[in-house]
Amino acid sequence: MGLLKKLFGSLAAVQQLPSGTITVDRDGRILSSTVSSTYPKPLLQTIARDVLELLREARASQMPLAEVSLHYGSLRITARELRGGAIIFLLPQTALLPTPNPPRP
Amino acid sequence: MENRNKILVLDDDVDWLALCRDLLVTLPSKPEIHTANSARRALTIIETEKIRLLICDLKMPRIDGLQMLAIVRRRFPELRTIVLSALEDEEFRSRAYALGVDLFWLKTEMQRNSKLFNECLESLLGRADREGDTGFRGIQSKSLMDIIQMECLSRSSTVLRITRGPLVAKLWIQDGELFDAECEGARGEVAFQRLLAWKSGSFENLPAEPRHERTINKSVNALLLESAQTLDENAGAATAASAEPLESLTHRKTIWKLSQLTREGADFILAVPPEGQGEPDAIGTQSIASTAHWTRKADEIAHRLGDKLEAGPLSHVSGQNLERTVILLSRGDKTFLVGWPTDATGNLTEKSRKLAASWDS
Questions:
Q1: Phi/psi at B331 (5° precision)
Q2: Rounded CA gap, A93 and B209, in Å?
Q3: What residues of chain A lie within 8 A of the CB of B87, using their CB?
Q4: Which residue from B minimizes the CA distance to A105?
Q5: Could you give the CA distance from residue B42 to residue A58 in angstroms, rounded to a whole number?
């Protein structure tokens, strides 16, 4: 009883996608978050760090960006630059969303 | 000792000159280093010494770097030039390149990447003996088409004087628009078409003539496209067994890409191969190296983050600033970055995919 669970229980877990908004300062510290508290903090930290790196690299390449969006199959991450920090919107893309990426007018 | 290349560094900051000297003496080719803290002194040295490379600052009293470069380009067209400046403004970069400098480096970048800077210098000095290269002196490996595009992209106002042996042609450019052309006794569009047939030569920037009569009313891109197509048609009939098949093919490919870009209304497209598998290729942008660096980095970060979050395959990355929207996407083993004006309409992602798909066709 429970043999399979013992063997594969942790491996078979599906990671949830983050949904909500976080604000981060220029050092990558999360200042505020509306993402579920069950979502792993280190992953949120990774998102914050990577997004800031993306914006920083753009600045260093003489192509400063005010907004950047990463479009994945099941998640969209949109970040707006805020004085070195950023506000990051995490939007899971589900089949229920009619227009996940509406074209700009 | 006689064969050592001579480098002249011009900067009004004496401490910086000392720092540059210390860095340049470590170059493997052991060049002879000269320094000058004023343009006047630098010109004297260039006249007396056989200087191969000039490294020039932009912000200097009396004669500034851009003036100095204009003088050098006219009086010493064979001298290679590098701008080393603390000014991060893109406008200065564009203006320097329009003046025909070989490289533009920021001082901060040079200090941070001194190894890469040294490699660039060595590469420039190494090319010194290849006098038989095609392309227009002033900007290595750039066709006349590229030079005209660069002038127009930087919205400069100038008169381009192009010489090829005894032949002289002129192009009048005002605020990035082509006003008039004069070549081989012709004027206007006909002259422009004749000029584009030149494959090598040298050019210089003369002061703008804003009151010059306008004879050309088409956009530069449209005109380049038309001229290039005419050239191709003529060349196709006459040179079936041409001695330059590769050049012709590259030329044709450039025209095709340019026409695609113009038709879709994009600002630029950059194709970046994986690291170590070739050079990035672009149309419509001058800052290829820095943009390619960001493209690689952004692609790497986006893939890494996607894997960690288990968010599915990366479709694309988009970015925006006040000037333009950029779309980054992968196709095959290449990563493409397409720049669009902010007022571009329609589904830019799909349009970018289309451009990327046509890149290698």
A1: -150, 120
A2: 56
A3: none
A4: B345
A5: 36
Write the ipTM. 0.82
Token reading at B6:
């001579």
Cα dist. B71→A45, B96, B142 in Å?
A: 54, 13, 21
Are residues B305 and A46, on separate chains, in Cβ contact within 8 Å? Answer: yes
Mutation target among A53, A65, A77 for the B interface, most CBs of B within 10 A: A65
Number of domains into which chain B is organized: 2
Domain that holds residue B335: 265-357
3-class DSSP state for residue B143? Answer: coil
Written as tens digits, the pLDDT of chain B (361 aa) is 456 888 999 998 888 888 888 888 888 888 889 999 888 888 889 888 888 889 998 888 777 888 888 888 777 877 888 888 887 777 777 777 777 788 888 888 777 777 778 877 887 776 544 444 445 554 445 667 777 877 777 777 888 888 776 677 888 988 888 888 988 777 888 888 888 877 667 777 777 888 888 888 887 777 877 777 776 676 666 555 444 555 556 666 676 677 777 777 888 888 999 888 888 888 877 788 888 999 999 999 999 999 999 888 899 999 999 888 999 999 888 899 999 988 888 889 988 888 888 776 5
Multiple choice CATH, A18-92, 3.30.450.30, 3.40.50.300, 3.40.30.10, 3.40.190.10:
3.30.450.30
* pTM strictly above 0.90: no
